[in-house]
Amino acid sequence: PYNTILESLAYDDAALPVLKVATSPDFAPMEFVDLSRTGDDQFVGFDLLLAKFIAKELGFKLKIMPMSFDACQAAVQTGAVDLAISGFSWTEERAQHFLISDYYEAGNENEQVVITTKANAGKWTKAEDFKGVKVGAQGASLQEKLCNEQLKDCGAEIILFENLNDAVMALMTGKIDALACAQGNGEAFISANKKDLAQSGYMFEVADEYKANVILLNLEDDVLLAKVNACLAKAEAAGYYIPWYEACQLLNNIKTLDELGYDDDGNKITE
Fold this sequence. Notes:
five-stranded mixed beta sheet, globular, 10 helices, single chain
């Protein structure tokens, strides 16, 4: 399904101006690296499909700019890139420093959870359980904010990471006890490490304004913001989001064809 979607988004971009999009490819199934592909094509995921769709709709050649999560935000502020599309949530602080797109709904990214090792599966179900627990989170993320608001005062030690893959390695080697992440991202890490990782049993309380995802733009780019919002509205109206997200779950081996209701040829079963 992912390759079929890519084919539908293909177009002749040789003579078009460039749209630079920053992303942090450590957040499957939203953005991650597929080493079986080359060049910009190795950067895959829901947000990359969305970026391709926006570039095609607006008449640009897409240039993916992979960088760390916090660097994505800095690149937008300095004008080094046009957009940052990397699983961003709306926050009060971001609203002060960026133009923020309308929401887009990718799937099950609304829930925020804590994953841990198999030995600690189901161990922590409420905030008070985290006293003395080392909880990792990505710096400058919604998960950092939630940890500080809901776990820190209960005695958790919050440890920040620039890259989520490094955070998972820290979890698996005992440097931290748990890792805060979006539910879909947690499922990806658990799927890739079934023998070692599991859900902790805890889910954050998440206000409605932090649910779903947004695109970040420079404060001066109000014209581009209007065009991006029009693209988001068109993609949502066309019903693209769920098929895109499911295709990315399949690509990252988070879900199987059978679990998502596809036949062996990758076609959605409708009856």
